[in-house]
Design a protein that fits this description.
Elements (H helix, E strand, L loop, with lengths): L22 E2 L9 E7 L5 E10 L5 E4 L9
Parallel strand pairs: 1-4
Antiparallel strand pairs: 2-3, 3-4
């Protein structure tokens, strides 16, 4: 059954802290969709972001891979 996109914004309150695992692009549960905080500049492009993110499926706290994390490219 399909669900509305807004349901992705409900976060599991007791997610596991997995920050020690280092940067990643996939959660241990297999999910590749995350909640992340970003901000925009005056040109309406993404100006920055926090690397800590929350898995949209299981609620785990993870560190997201960035452009400098070459092994995740």
């Amino acid at each position: 059954m399909s669900q509305p996109v807004y349901q992705l914004f409900y976060i599991e309150p007791d997610g596991t802290d997995l920050l020690f695992m280092g940067p990643t692009t996939v959660c241990v549960c297999g999910n590749q969709v995350f909640h992340a905080l970003i901000w925009f500049d005056e040109d309406k492009t993404i100006a920055g972001y926090f690397t800590e993110m929350v898995c949209a499926s299981c609620g785990s706290l993870l560190r997201g891979a960035t452009e400098i994390d070459e092994e995740f490219q």
